[in-house]
Write a structure and sequence with these properties.
Elements lengths: L6 H14 L5 H15 L4 H18 L2
Helix pairs in contact: 1-2
């Protein structure tokens, strides 16, 4: 039996572990950048885009 893990899920786990253990460096930056590119090609891209827009709009309104 073969079990496949999507690359997006694998990169998400790696990025979260790097952030959890505060291993910020060149490797972490590459992993997070790759995670962003793979996330953008999934169905979650529109949801993430809407969430980021909502948060930035809320921050802009809070500053007034």
């Amino acid at each position: 039996m073969v079990i496949t893990i999507p690359l997006v899920l694998l990169l998400a786990v790696v990025a979260s572990l790097l952030l959890r253990f505060k291993a910020v460096g060149a490797g972490a930056a590459v992993v997070v950048a790759l995670f962003g590119f793979y996330l953008a090609s999934t169905g979650a891209a529109d949801t993430v885009n809407q969430l980021v827009t909502a948060v930035t709009d809320a921050l802009a309104d809070a500053g007034r």
